[in-house]
Amino acid sequence: MLRKRQVHLDFHTSEFVPVGKNFSKEQFQNALKAGHIDSITVFSKCHHGWSYHPTEVNEIHPQLDFDLLGAQLEACKEIDVNAPVYISAGYDEKEYLKRPEWRWRHTLDKEEQLEYEKEVHFHLLCFNTEYLDFLCQQIEEVMVKYNPCGIFLDIISPKICYCEKCVNDMKTLGLDIENAEDREKFSQMTYNKYLEETNKAVRKHSSTATIFHNAGHIAKGDYRYINSNSHLELESLPTGGWGYDHFPLSAAYVRTLKDTEFLGMTGKFHHSWGEFGGYKHPNALIYETALSVANGAGCSIGDQMHPLSEMNMATYNLIGKAYSLIEEKEPWLNDAVNVADIAVLSAEATTGNRDAKADIGANRMLLENHFLYNFIDETADLSDYKLLILPDVSSYSDEMIEKIKAFSENGGKIIATADALVKDDKFFLDFGAEYKGKNEFNPTYFVPEFETANGKTEYVMRCDFNKFEVENGEIVAYMQNPYFNRTLEHFCSHAHAPNNPDEAFPGAIINGNIAYIGWDIFSAYANHGHLCFKELFTYIIKKMMGDEFTVLADVPDRAVVTYTKQEKECRNILHLLFAHTTVRGRNTEVIEDTVPLYDIKCSVKCGSKPSKITLVPSGEELNFEYIDGRAEFTVPKVDIHQMVEIK
Question: What pTM does this model have?
Answer without folding.
Answer: 0.97
